[in-house]
# Entry
Amino acid sequence: MTTFTPTERTRVKRLPDRGKYDLETVFSILDEGFVCHVGFVVDGQPYVIPTGYARAGDKLYIHGSAASRMLRTLAGGVQVCVTVTLVDGIVVARSAFHSSMNYRSVVILGRATLITDPEEKAKAFEAITEHIIPGRWAEVRRPTEPEMKQTAVLVLPLEEVSAKIRTGGPKDDEEDYALPIWAGVLPLPVVPGAPIPDSRLPATVEIPGYISHYKRPRNGHRPL
Amino acid sequence: MTTFTPTERTRVKRLPDRGKYDLETVFSILDEGFVCHVGFVVDGQPYVIPTGYARAGDKLYIHGSAASRMLRTLAGGVQVCVTVTLVDGIVVARSAFHSSMNYRSVVILGRATLITDPEEKAKAFEAITEHIIPGRWAEVRRPTEPEMKQTAVLVLPLEEVSAKIRTGGPKDDEEDYALPIWAGVLPLPVVPGAPIPDSRLPATVEIPGYISHYKRPRNGHRPL
# Structure
């Protein structure tokens, strides 16, 4: 499989040119981001909760600290929507109407289930740790059994998925190009700052390269 | 009113110390962010869509290009959850279990309604433009009547609202502090890049200060 099949629910209808369904695009967005917004419904009320995640092959692991509320309603699978959004910049058009944002987003629909198998759960912890800080798993103090039990991890199959992307400069109405109004793009990248060592860190512990050279993978992804 | 009253639905139950309900905190997060995630339900399926927004007093205006799907289900008010999340950094703890993120988020529950009054709609356009690029409204080519009709704006009262915040360094288990593992915080600020002028921009049009000195208001907000 190299592309997702859009469904009636995932096909991008407004501005269909922005819709993308190929794995390459979808996975590169999921692998660059590390915070998702999980939507679920309780008593007809939608809730949207930010949390960490990782992709492993064609599955998404979602850190369960998201919401005990979600866990309470979990009984073998609850309908969720998981959205990952990367904001790349502000599109400054001459008109307010055509002003926009450059962004890349992925929307995943499906049923998330709680991981109960301890082996898969351990794999999910590793995936999430490595997704957020590649290289960390080899050094970090790993979860104990009681810690594993305290944290829930959900798994969501990547089946009903679409991406939406906007790139490039403003697209103004032809007559507006003559106006003496500045237009262009203001990039808004996430730029890692200088790492702040913990106040109790011994001076003998050096900063690892995966922290001092931290960056998100841009337009790339781990193996399909 | 200086604080929101938490309800059964908005009170932060997991890690209650992170829950904040004062207007100062909530408004500063809403005023610093400019992309929200809107959650709504169609046929039992939640959808989570990223879109632009602005706060004006005790109302949130949501840019309606979000989802025609949402508009189709709008009949005088649909239950939504609007979440704004600012990711401030990665908390690198000695243990995987205590590793975390520094973030500030706001969750708003309520019923969004379509703005039909042209005057309020114009006000909402101005608020959204000014929220994303303060200073822009005075220069931009304003929306025409047909443009206004093509764009929907939703309004959501700020009534059932909570914020959740994590700041500071890692909190490791006492026995883990002796481990020779680097720990601290990796800040992940959004840093505006050099503005990219539109390829058709005449050389005579200078870059305005609100673009060249663009920054989000940090820990501040517009009048309550």
